[in-house]
Amino acid sequence: MILYGHNVNQLARSFTKRLNEKISPLGLYSSQWGIVVYLHKKGECTQIELCKYLGVEAPTITRTLARMEEMGLVIRREGNDKRERHIKLTEKAYEMYPKWYEAAKRIELEAINNISKEELKIFNQTLEKMMMNLD
Fold first, then answer.
1. Average pLDDT, the chain
2. For burial by CB atoms within 10 Å, which of 71, 78, 104, 106 has the most?
3. Secondary structure letter of residue 25 according to DSSP
4. Which residues lie closer than 8 Å to 31 by C-beta, 6 or more apart?
5. pTM for the full model?
């Protein structure tokens, strides 16, 4: 039997390792990159939204955001009540984004080398179905 989940996990580990090698010299880690990508796309969101998107617990996001705030990459502000926090990227993060994006893109291009567009389309569809099955 093929262990699909194990293979996906190993692929994710490889991506994470390579991404950290490329973006840590630029002052960012893969755990922070996911937050940056989401905020870059959304503009602003709540901590709860980030937790759901990344599939991690609130304390983990809180610690990561605190580090990112210290680094000057995000701004956190209170929402409608004291428990709700809104997060957005700083100007510094927007300025660094193209460098981080290029590093991530290079890794992806390396990973998909010699894989056809049709194979990638099927791969993406399969991953989406697997994620929906687990949600």
1. 92
2. 104
3. G
4. 64
5. 0.85
* Residue 117 near residue 76, CB atoms below 8 Å: no
Cα separation, 72 vs 95, in Å, equals 12
Residues 6+ apart with CB under 8 A from 30: 15, 16, 19, 20, 23
CATH says 19-134 is which class? mainly alpha
Write down the domain spans for the chain.
19-134
Select from 55, 13, 18, 14 the least CA-distant residue to 34: 55
Query: What is the C-alpha to C-alpha distance for residues 96 and 54, in angstroms, rounded to an integer?
Result: 21
Residues in the chain: 135
Query: Cα(14)–Cα(28) distance, rounded to whole angstroms?
Result: 17
CA-CA distance, 84 to 78, in Å (whole number)?
Answer: 6
Digit-coded pLDDT (tens) for 91-106 = 999 999 999 999 999 9
